[in-house]
Amino acid sequence: MRARGASRARWANGRCDVVEVAPSSAVSRDGAVSAAVEVELRVNGERRQIVIEPRVTLLDALRGRLGLTGTKKGCDHGECGACTVLVDGRRITSCMTLAIMQEGRQVTTIEGLGTPESPHVVQSAFVEHDGMQCGICTPGQVISAVALISEGHAGSDDEIREWMSGNLCRCAAYPGIIAAVRAAAGTDAVADGAS
Prior knowledge:
single chain; 195 residues; alpha+beta; Ubiquitin-like (UB roll); DNA polymerase, domain 1; 3 domains; five-stranded mixed β-sheet; 6 helices
């Protein structure tokens, strides 16, 4: 017989108590049961209803429940920026916020920026300037670039570097990323460090 409903915390403490839990419930570390809730998210201009446990991150809701796999799970600690999305126009790391906290707010993922037939200007600039290699960080980089341009932080390469510093690229495609941001912002003639 399987120990259905046993929490990780109980296994970690060296014992396994069998706890019957409804399939739509979550067992927290202290053994408390919290029921799943229905949440309405506004994602890429569409209202989407999902039933999730309150502990589900926005990243996991986007990828696992809504099938929007463009947003990547990198570090799962908010340090790499691969999961960056826009919430009401502000960039956030979706692995560090709960989906339930975003109810009623407009969430924009990489899928909401453009299409293959009609890409967003930043997406086109990343392709044109080789602002990517393996592609894992690219969705977060593009979303952050869109935000920093709209915030007015693309005045120089140094400013772009500073405002993109929350997005890491393990392939070190930074020169292409900076060139892409400059091109998309219309500041292609700005030299390194110039204001």
